[in-house]
Amino acid sequence: MSPDKAKANRAAQTPVDPIAASREAAAIICEDENDTGAIRISENVVAAIVHKYVLEVEGVVRFASGSLVGNIGEFFGRPDPDKKLLVDLADECVNISVSIVLEFGVHIPTVASEVQTVVRTKVEELTGKQVMKVNVTVQDLEEPKTEDEEGVPLGGAGIE
Question: Kindly report the CA angle at 94 between 83 and 20, in degrees rounded to 5?
Fold first, then answer.
């Protein structure tokens, strides 16, 4: 084997850090170039916007938890298909998927539709990027917590 071919073969076998590679590949969802320079918006920025505003929708309790297997796979750089929040750039448009837990007793289609509207509006408003799809998966329902379960006395604070 020639020295050049051996070097190319070793390079092909060099281990790549999958976590760093996936972060680098998916870190920037959009880049706009203008006269004064480049504007880059990270996938993490979109995820932060989605996270903040989804939790403000009436009836949303929390984001769904990923599976144990999915969490272990993510540690090794394999994306979890059941991840609670996914941001994907496709043809200059953003696609977003969220998995959430709703309060038991709410009208599920109404709350899910409100999540879609809020996510689309806020991401477009704050990033200037068009949102093509907002996929909402309602993974579970939970009873609403009483004030006593949240650590606040039912009789009110400071009343004896």
Answer: 55
What is the assigned CATH class of domain 26-142?
alpha beta
Q: Give the contacts of 41 (CB within 8 A, at least 6 positions apart).
A: 28, 29, 30, 31, 127, 129
pTM: 0.65
Rounded Cα–Cα distance for residues 99 and 107 (Å): 16
Q: At what angle do helices 108-127 and 43-54 cross, to 10 degrees?
A: 140
Distance (Å, whole) CA 90 – CA 38:
20
Instruction: For residue 71, count other CB atoms closer than 10 A to its CB.
Output: 13
Long-range CB contacts (< 8 A, 24+ apart) of 105-113? 105/144, 106/58, 106/59, 108/138, 110/59, 111/57, 111/58, 111/59, 111/60, 111/138, 112/136, 112/138
Type of residue found at 68: L
Domain ranges in the chain are 26-142
Encode pLDDT of 52-110 as tens digits: 999 999 999 999 986 555 445 545 554 444 468 889 876 678 999 999 999 999 999 99
Q: What is the separation of C-alpha 43 from the centre of its chain, rounded to a whole number of angstroms?
A: 9
Residue 113 amino acid letter: S
